[in-house]
Design brief:
The chain has 8 helices and 14 strands. It is α/β, with parallel strands linked by helices.
Length: 374
Amino acid sequence: MVGFADEALIEVRSGNGGNGCVAFRREKYIPYGGPNGGDGGKGGDVIFVVKKNLRTLSKIRHKCCFKAKNGGDGQGWNRYGADGEDVVIPVPPGTTIRDSETDEIIYDFKDDNENERFVFLKGGNGGWGNVHFKTSTNQAPRHANPGQKGETRFLKLELSIMADVGLVGFPNAGKSSLLTAFTNARPKIAPYPFTTIIPNLGVLRVDDESDIIIADIPGIIEGASEGLGLGDTFLKHITRTACLIFMIDCSDENYATAYETLCNELASYSDELMEKPRIVLCNKIDVEGAFEHAVELAESIRKAEPETKVIPVSVMMGRGMKDAKNEIVKLVSQLEKRDLEEAATEEKAFGKSFMDSRAIPDDDDDVQYPGSEN
């Protein structure tokens, strides 16, 4: 989709380690000074880092290969080679890294943490110079270790937008109008279906210290979970939202079955979507007969789902918008409080002991020791 990239196929390579050097000290009057070949430098790593100012994968998609620098070779006089420069790949929050062949999830940036880092591939270790191989029986070793090779992997990056609220509805239900009314976002609005063809984000200002991010995806049609329309392409962008806002056009002749159809499409795509808390907004009550439809639909939903809030609104006329905003803020606040309590409980239950936090892991299996070249 032009202007929006939520998938990218890339190749990543960590740097090779530099070779160790075979050299001997040679000075005037010191013809047999012994070995002094330095070690090779370590190859650069492949690192992914989260940048909040990024919203798509467009910058990554147009660069197919990301390669770290190789380590420098060792030199005489015990001079070590320089370490290779790391390659740092910036990604937006919500990016999932998968193996392009097996589709296995390697890492998931599911938290909205600025500068979160993930070292994916380590560069090869530098080879040992001949200074390390001097022994009492071999005082002039003419051997040094070559640098270890880096790794190459092919990855598939997928982006799921990080937002607090996801807007769900049929085309022309008023989702973009709601986003415009609540936020500074200015998506395209027109009296025909599929004016929204890419996801849009807006920020609802609650107070000076807190905001709510709202995501508007293209309208869903019946069969979207099977690939019809644009819904299948962008349904994944509401999988990470904390809650959902269903927009129902109560002036439409199919108003009575609209909510059930939307729920069926979400359930067909992912069972997790139907577990999210939700609010239903019955829109366009300013149209003749639509308010009665909204009351009828609200009673039907409340019988089946007593915990679901149903609010009649008219986005264009501003009716019911204050109640809708208050309910959205209230729901998001409750979810944030619940998440904080769960995190605190988990940390208390599985927190490390003092001695565990002081332990130093011995997991560096790539260190080269003298004689390990075989």
